[in-house]
Specification:
This protein folds into 2 domains: 224 residues, Rossmann fold, CATH 3.40.50.300; 80 residues, no CATH class. The chain is 54% helix and 9% strand. The chain contains 15 helices and 7 strands. Helix 1 runs antiparallel to helix 2. The protein starts with 7 loop residues before the first helix and ends with a strand.
């Protein structure tokens, strides 16, 4: 998937969710062939398929926002995501059937229940004659507008346990909107400067001990604007942002970001080693529990042995809980980057071309 290089004039106009006629004419001139590339069915299909996989397979399962190019594209992306959602469910059901261990099966069943109850909503501003305008494009805004009018979607989205977990927007909610439960932002719109910093801030709000970082998935070449935005509005450089994906650039900032993800992987490996060493101090070897060919009853016996060792006293129990929490936090922050592959059994890869960076 190839993206055109979008300039600052486009970003300025697209910040307005409902541009006037002069802005539309200017945007048409600036985009020319680029708009056709950005809204091509094949490109949006790739993004929708990738997003469905990534959203449901992320390490930390917080809420997410997809920032689309414009209002018609937001509705189109909703339709495409709904197309691929049942396919993901079917694949997940197959994984449940093939699961060889009870623990894995139960974990996948919990994931399936969450996927099935998850709601996706389009949140865009209204305009005159919008029903006819969308109809001319082969799209239906009516069910989305009905949700926006009849429900308090903003309140629902900010509630951590509410099943409304993925919001598709293009200008609304990317600035002046605080929802700590948002952990991932998917970008497919030219954004720069203060608006970019505000958008990234949607994902890096502190929430709980498990939320190690926010995740930005960049489908639209927005990352190149990040260092400039940090130099103006941040502390210079790209902070602690980490980046991975198929389109890594040659800049020093991006190389530094890759290095930081590698450091996170090293921290995870070190924490796992420290956890293993602690268990050995308690006379339990983790290899006993993870060895292949272990029968279910044998595994239950090993788990009981581990519990007995960990529960020697209050101090040993608390120390193990701290170790375990650190392992999970670091793993969730790293997944689904390639660097997480050595720490997991299954690691499918996204298909769309994108950058993934943590903030």
């Amino acid at each position: 998937m190839k993206n055109p290089q979008l300039n600052e004039e486009m970003a300025d106009i697209l910040e307005n969710e409902s541009p006037d006629e002069d802005q539309k004419r200017k945007l048409t001139y600036l985009f020319r062939k680029d708009y056709v590339v950005l809204t091509a069915d094949s490109r949006l299909n790739d993004i929708a398929r990738d997003l469905v996989w990534h959203f449901n397979e992320r390490g930390y399962q917080g809420k997410a926002m997809l920032v689309a190019l414009d209002k018609p594209t937001a509705v189109k992306m909703y339709d495409l995501i709904q197309k691929y959602w049942p396919q993901y469910i079917s694949e997940l059901e197959m994984r449940i059937k093939k699961a060889s261990e009870v623990e894995e099966q139960k974990m996948l069943e919990r994931k399936l229940a969450r996927v099935k109850e998850t709601e996706i909503c389009v949140v865009v501003s209204s305009e005159q004659n919008e029903v006819a305008k969308f109809r001319d494009l082969g799209l239906d805004i009516t069910p989305h507008r009905k949700k926006m009018v009849s429900r308090d979607l903003e309140k629902e989205f900010k509630e951590e346990e509410n099943p409304f977990r993925l919001a598709i927007v293009c200008a609304m909610w990317i600035t002046g909107f605080d929802a700590p439960c948002v952990s991932t932002v998917y970008l497919d719109k030219p954004i720069r400067g203060h608006t970019l910093m505000q958008t990234i801030a949607r994902a890096n709000r502190v929430l709980d001990d498990e939320k190690e970082n926010g995740l930005i998935v960049d489908y639209g070449n927005v990352y190149r604007q990040l260092e400039q935005a940090y130099s103006v509005y941040g502390e210079g450089g790209a902070g602690r942002a980490g980046v991975s994906g198929k389109e890594k650039g040659d800049g020093a900032g991006q190389k530094k970001s890759v290095q930081e993800l590698e450091e996170l992987a090293q921290e995870l490996e070190r924490t796992i080693s420290e956890t293993k060493a602690f268990l050995q101090e308690l006379h339990f070897d983790l290899a006993e529990l993870t060895s292949s060919g272990l029968k279910p009853m044998e595994k239950l016996g090993k788990i009981k042995k581990a519990i007995d060792c960990i529960s020697l006293n209050e101090k040993t129990r608390v120390r193990f809980e701290l170790f375990a929490r650190e392992v999970f936090r670091k793993y969730k922050a790293l997944f689904p980057d390639d660097l997480a592959k050595p720490f997991t059994k299954v690691n499918p890869r996204p298909t769309a071309s994108c950058l993934v960076f943590s903030v």
